[in-house]
Write the structure tokens for this entry.
Amino acid sequence: MINPLKKISRDGKLYTRRPTIESKIIELASLSHEDLVIRCAIRQKDDPAYVPSECLLYFIRESRGNRPDTYFEKLYKLLSERVLRCLPDSSSLSGKTTSLTKSTIREKVFGHFVELLASDRNDYSDKLDYYEINFEDALKKLRLDAQNQAWRDEKRSTTLYDEETGEPTVEVENAAGSFDPFNTSEFSSDVYRFALNEAIDTLPPFQKRIIVMLQQGFPIGPKDSNAITIAKALDKDEKTIRTHRNKAFATLHAVLNGDN
Amino acid sequence: MIPVDPQPSREDVLYTFAVGSNSGRDLEQYLRDYPQYAAELINLSHELSRDVCEDEMPLSDKDLALIDKAWLQHVAAGPQEIVDPFASLSVAEQRELAQCLDVPLQVIMAFREHRVEPTSVPAPFLERLASALNSTVEILKNAFALPPKLNLARSYKADARPDDRAQVNFEQILVEADVPSDKRALLMADKN
């Protein structure tokens, strides 16, 4: 018998784990503590014996009322290791930027997750239910919060922007020409898309949102449309959106070509 | 059906969108339902589009230290269980302990039943007691603070009412156990 989640969804129903996770928990619950720890230590996701993090978290939460013995400690530390491995390391993947910020984000996310687990130890914290539904994506939400905070603290600026106006320099805009990051022959390449995602992170927040929405196929306008458009979601007129899109394209062109 | 919260918190909206459960993960629908969180939902959708690239390198010493610290934090956050080192002592072990400390068995039983006033026990004796039990002074003090335990066999024979079983001074316990005065003075000494 698996304990159900307690978080209530926005349509008034209890959240549920994915059926594959529930089946896996039932299977794992029959193992001895020693065998469960061995299974949880497997890191390769394509290994049939791999234990999803959602299940690992379930067993840690189920140990809530138990004394902190070696079994409990091993499970806890294995999950902690997985969290750290999912977060960017202090060395930037692009090799160019913000190693200190990445390190800060990593520690903030880990610290928040540790606090969440600790709060669940005494009293059931339904916020952790999200992590039993989809561990990696719930962690991404935590990462976003930490990232926003770290970037605010960093007050990031680069030479791509004019120091007074915060806009891309004229040279950057001219060099971009008609560059469209989503309409290039390189777009099918994983390496390009990874680099593009990293480059998008360097944009000012408003421009970043425009690019993310364009990437997902939202139209720019009109603002008063019944459909969701970029102008409507961001509450700006179409002209402003187009201007900032062009500036964002110019910056992305510069970053992707190593001009910064 | 559980009543729906008409105004879910920012945390709940973003987490629900992130995990894509029950109602799915449809950015357009979320932007329609929660325009007040539009900027964060868009940022989050970008975050979710990334592949998770797990670091395969061995963890650094710094990471291992972070994990150790996190575990200690987790243990500290849990219910603090008071361990009673006397609880699991057999009669033979109680006798052995009495011999080791050179006191009558009656004194050990008084400790076991939490009848000794903790502040009345001299520090040197407490340290010897902790050492003999493979425990710590701190753990012993916490155990002494537990409510007195009723020894059914003894209380049946006793004339005193249960109310009279309140904690008593350590020296009084020694007197009741017929410990001679010169030995009492040694046991009550504040210094080793």
In short: The radius of gyration of chain B is 30 Å.
